[in-house]
Request: fold
Amino acid sequence: MQFTGAFTALVTPFKDGVIDEERYRELIEWQIEQGINGLVPCGTTGESATLSHEEHREVIRICVEQANKRVPVLAGAGSNNTKEAIDLTRFAKEAGADGALLITPYYNKPTQEGLYQHFKAIAGEVDMPFVLYNVPGRTGTNMLPCTLARLFKDIPQVKGVKEATANLTQVSDIIEQCGPDFQVLSGDDFTVLPLLSLGGCGVISVVSNIIPGKMSSMCKAFKEGDIATARKLHFGMQGLCRAMFIETNPIPVKTALSMMGKIGLELRLPLVPLMENNEKTLRCCLQSHGLLG
Reply:
C-alpha cells in the first residue's frame, strides 16, 4: 500500500500576504527528519480555500521538490467544480506528486451518483492514484460506503479514502464493502487508533504538524503489533488533539507552530487569530507537553 502511516496535512505559512517559501521548506524538512510517513500540501489545513490557483500550484511544487521522493506527497487537488478539479489534478501529476487528494464537491451538494460521475470524470482525464476525501462537516455531503465500493471497483485510480466523519461504524462498513486492498486513512486525529484496529492504514493528520514523530510512531507501533505502546501514544496525544480544534482548524495549529518558532503567525481572512483565552489555553497545553522552551 502506497499511502500508509502518518501523513501531515501541512499548514501553508504566509509572510506579508504571500507564501513563505523558506519557512515552508524548513517545515517540510523538519517533518521528514522527525519520521513522518508522507505529506499533504493544499488540504483544508493548508488553507486551500483561500489560495489562488497560481499559489495552489506553487505550494504543491515546493512540497514535491523539497520532499524529493523521500516520502510520498499526496497533493490536495479537489474542487466543487469538476473541470477545475481536473486541471488541479493534472498539475499535481505534472509536478511529480505521488497521488491526488480529492475532496467531495462542497456547497453544490451532489447526489451519490453525482459524486461517482465527478470522480469518474477526473479519472477520465488524469491517470494517477486518487485518495478521495470525505468530510461532511465541511462539505455538507456524506459519501456513502456503497459509493466508495463502486468507485473502487470501477475506477483503477481510486486507491483509498480520507474518512473524516469520526464515525467508526461507517469506517467498518467501508472496509467491509471495499475489502482489505482499499486504503482507509483517518481524517480525524482522535480516532486514528480505533480506525487502525478496524483495518485502516493510517491518518492524514493535523496534530502531526507539531508532533510528527509521535503520530508516526503510534502508527508504526500498531503495525508491528505493539498495541500497548500504540495505546500509550494515543492517550498521550489526546490533549494536543483537543487543543488543535479549540477553534476552527487551522487557526490553533498555525498558532502552535508560531509559538514553537516554526512559522510566523499569519492567517487569511475569513480566518482570524485565536481568542485570547484560547491562546492561553493552547500555550499551557504546549508547555505541558514539552513543546515550548
Notes: The first strand starts at residue 5 and ends at 9. The chain has a mean pLDDT of 97.
